[in-house]
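One thing: can you check what follows?
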Amino acid sequence: MSHTRTRMFRSMAMAVLFPALAVTFLRGQGKPAADPLSDGAQSVRLVGHSDLQGRESLVVTTKSDQANGSWVYVGHHDNYWDDKPKLNPITGKMEWNGTSILDIADPSKPKLVWHIPNETNRNSRGVSVVYDYKFDSSGRDYLIRNSEALTEGETGTDLKFQIFDITSRGTDPSKISLVSEIAGTPPNSCGPGCGGKFIRRAHKGWWSQQTGYFYSAAGEPGFQQVIVQIFDLRDPTSPKFVGRAWIPGQKDGEPGFEGQYAHHPIVDEQNKRLYVGYRNAGQAAAFDISNPAQPKLVWEIDMNPPHRGPHTVSPIVYKEVPNFGKAALPRTYAFIVDEAGGAADMAPCPGGVRTGSYMLDITTETKPFPVSVWQVPVGNFCSKGGRFGPHQSAETVNGHINRFEDKIAWIAYFNAGVRVVDLSNPYNLKELGYYIPKTNKNSHPIAKGQPTVIQMNDVDIDHRGLVYASDRVGTGLFILEYTGRRPPTSN
């Protein structure tokens, strides 16, 4: 490692070496006190909270190790509520929403150390980080985020991905600096007029620490809506375009377009697979990325109706499945989480098909098929206001793809809070617990004329098994711990 680390985190080291002991230590002793931030909870307790300066929050990414410490990165929505920048007490400046960096060595007291603002009112929802970077021999730490406008389909905006050197975040965060930007693909790289400056969206991405490749979800000329592009970031100062992946119907002139766009990629480098859910339609797909310059479509499934809006697609391997003999094992499934409708569908329950989460058997990749569906019971959520339904499941654990080794899924469920689901039997998904935060002084409606309700947007899991959940309407970041029974882990 070519740069000097000046902080050692003993609690971090303990958690890395003895994770069960660390969680026990965090729980403390005796009966827990009443939680003033909760509007209802079962088998989940609050460990810590940050108000994030009241910034509307979207994607959460945790990444920790013994050398670098424990950190969480939060990508923020643009300020659609009052179209004004917010005060950053760290700098004393009014700043547009961007990306927040928090020290979580003590998860009960998360410390916001820096906010990287946007130049205008934009969102930087997507955030991915790499540490001790080996490909450029610098050993430095980098963060990549998106930068886009709220309005979908807006083509005149400056859409891009930005790369920052964040090595100094624990010593002098004011030295965090912009390294480079990705604003599009080479013009005519997929035919005449195909390729060029990003259009419609530059949404989310996945930066692989193993290969140095970045998988983005963005729109570009020559394609309908958003597809996946692949860039070589082994030299973060000089990104290079490598290839792209799309499903039939997305390229101009191809039949079958239904409005689908690639929401974001999930990359399994070990098994050379790229998984994508396609919003505004019912498709999910997997690609072989053995050759990133030419990804090959391995399987695709159209779940519309009723599942019109896959958001997160995560592969899970099972060594045991009820009623399957040894000859049929192991089996691989894809856990898919739909995204509930937006502002146009604020009351999705009466007279409409509700979004859900479901399992596909993808053991034979050429024949994916659904085996189960899970939804939160209606309760009072339909009449509560805001969006009701799933948005995202925790797709990473400490910066790596979530293998669901504990067979537990954490799902951000908008006005129904955060839900914990038992995946131990892929044919019979069951709820284990939930946590529903209360709104606070920083919360505001998701749209004008709507009531002020929680809109839990994203969840992520750290090295200790703690979960970080963000709220889309400004209520803050909630650090949670599951306290209930755990499903069998022999799977």
